[in-house]
Amino acid sequence: MGQPLSIDLRSRVLTAVNDGMSCRAAAARFGVAASTAIRWQAQRRETGDFAPKPQGGDMRSRRVEERAEDILAVWEASKDISLEELRVALIEMGLTVSVAGLHRFFVRRGMTRKKRLAMQSSRTAPTS
């Protein structure tokens, strides 16, 4: 993902617009796209600020986290359930989530979903 353009460039473009230059002319003068200058002007008009907005990050986990109690309740009812089986049970409850999304949900809580053997394997026999 690219980096946002500097505040200095943004302020110079918007100062030129304030001084009577059109957004397109100011964009051409400072070497940015006309749509960029128009968006900066619109952002300043709407919010009063022209700083870059945050980039990246997880945008979908909020929906899953809102239903955390439901997910944990299904998991508590049957702890040996696979992530795919859990996903199907959640679809029946109205929550569509991927297996990878469920995996990240459990990782955020420090919960492992790995199934372990009941007994440690024997080391008496040589392996090839």
Automatic annotation (TrEMBL):
Renumbered to this chain, region (Disordered) spans 43-63
Q: Which residues cross the membrane?
A: 88-107
Under SUPFAM superfamilies, the record lists: Homeodomain-like
Q: Which UniProt keywords apply?
A: Membrane, Transmembrane, Transmembrane helix
Pfam families, per the entry: HTH_23
Recorded protein name is Transposase
